[in-house]
């Protein structure tokens, strides 16, 4: 957003609670890398220009990319400034109370993303005190935990990748598998992301998605950019010794109880991947594209029926990583612009309050919103709204 405002010479400041790129620097594990190919990194005026467009940037490379983008136009950023309240004054200006004083502005862009408070269920309180528990945002590497076995709760992108990180380091891992879908890394000669991009899936507006706004709450498909990009097949990991369980139900007297839904969850994840392949097949056939044929996925492992449980002490579980997502928190915004769940009501980031905008939310407008691939388009759209608002004010003055 600041890039566009800077190039339009619109006076503004950026308030950053920590430092630019904080979450990439401090809330990702050491082996973290992008899930989408580097060519999808397309910040405004600053597309990826490195040597591996079809590769997947690692954590340090992502930070370097952001730092280079910032250096390219030097935005007016004030780091270490936390905003405590945003409200509207009687004269129509917006007041921003921060840890470094109070500001006023004619317009405000809220670009804080949608992942604010790490979610850790209350069942964690029943875990024996000697077992270390952290949220996925605190995970860095297996050395954080003393010798022993590990339990990862949650099988979205973070949960699966963290479970693999332990597994590849030689640790014995238990993984609680939920309803997150998966996707193949490559199919019929190309990265699946390339096929989906060609089919316009990253450009589909949320209002045209079959699930409409409900898609904003759905988990992303799990896959990885690790090792040059590959599938995450939990069935393969199970054959190698990772122990899979269904959805966590409860913890009673140090025993974790899991639902009898592991087979269903694995089957549904596989079916999601196969459905995407079906769509790709149709696109290839409809457009007469020459692409190699590829055999479909065949499960290599099937769980036994029935629920399961883990006696945490008997199984020598020394650490638990909660990878069950985040909660949004906009309670610092004192404006009537939220729905019953406290989530912003908006259209393409334009809220019900003239002059207040949101940027960087998942599915703000398309699947690419909130990612390096779609943020340029979203911010450019908001720039047009900001300019219209400024013009309206000038016309009102004249």
Automatic annotation (TrEMBL):
<dbReference type="Pfam" id="PF13738">
    <property type="entry name" value="Pyr_redox_3"/>
</dbReference>
<dbReference type="InterPro" id="IPR036188">
    <property type="entry name" value="FAD/NAD-bd_sf"/>
</dbReference>
<protein>
    <submittedName>
        <fullName>MSMEG_0569 family flavin-dependent oxidoreductase</fullName>
    </submittedName>
</protein>
<keyword id="KW-0560">Oxidoreductase</keyword>
<dbReference type="InterPro" id="IPR024000">
    <property type="entry name" value="CHP04046_FMN-dependent"/>
</dbReference>
<dbReference type="InterPro" id="IPR050982">
    <property type="entry name" value="Auxin_biosynth/cation_transpt"/>
</dbReference>
């Amino acid at each position: 957003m600041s890039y566009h405002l800077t190039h339009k010479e619109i006076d503004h400041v950026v308030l950053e609670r920590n430092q630019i790129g904080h979450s990439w620097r401090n809330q990702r594990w050491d082996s973290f890398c992008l899930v989408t190919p580097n060519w999808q990194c397309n910040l405004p005026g600053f597309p990826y220009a490195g040597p591996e467009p079809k590769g997947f940037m690692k954590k340090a490379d992502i930070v370097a990319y952001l730092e280079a983008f910032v250096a390219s136009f030097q935005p007016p950023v004030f780091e270490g400034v936390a905003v405590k309240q945003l409200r509207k004054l009687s004269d129509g200006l917006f007041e921003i109370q921060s840890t470094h004083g109070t500001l006023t502005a004619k317009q405000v862009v809220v670009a804080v993303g949608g992942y604010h408070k790490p979610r850790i269920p209350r069942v964690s309180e029943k875990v024996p005190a000697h077992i270390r528990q952290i949220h996925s945002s605190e995970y860095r590497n297996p050395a954080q935990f003393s010798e022993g076995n590990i339990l990862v709760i949650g099988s979205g992108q973070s949960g699966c990748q963290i479970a693999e990180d332990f597994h590849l380091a030689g640790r014995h891992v238990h993984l609680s598998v939920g309803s997150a879908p998966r996707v193949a890394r490559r199919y019929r000669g190309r990265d699946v992301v390339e096929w989906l991009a060609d089919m316009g899936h990253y450009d589909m507006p949320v209002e045209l998605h079959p699930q409409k706004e409900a898609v904003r709450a759905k988990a992303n498909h799990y896959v990885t950019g690790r090792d040059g990009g590959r599938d995450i097949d939990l069935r393969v990991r199970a054959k190698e010794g990772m122990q899979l369980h269904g959805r966590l139900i409860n913890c009673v007297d140090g025993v974790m109880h899991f639902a009898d839904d592991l087979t269903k969850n694995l089957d549904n994840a596989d079916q999601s991947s196969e459905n995407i392949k079906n769509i790709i097949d149709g696109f290839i056939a409809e457009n007469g594209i020459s692409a190699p044929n590829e055999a479909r996925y065949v499960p290599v492992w099937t769980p036994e029926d029935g629920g399961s449980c883990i006696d945490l002490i008997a199984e020598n579980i020394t650490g638990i990583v909660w990878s069950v997502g985040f909660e949004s928190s906009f309670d610092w915004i004192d404006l009537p612009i939220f729905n019953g769940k406290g989530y912003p009501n908006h259209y393409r980031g334009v809220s019900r309050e003239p002059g207040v905008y949101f940027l960087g939310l998942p599915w703000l407008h398309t699947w690419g919103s909130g990612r390096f691939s779609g943020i340029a388009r979203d911010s450019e759209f908001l720039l047009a709204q900001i300019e219209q608002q400024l013009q309206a004010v000038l016309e009102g003055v004249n």
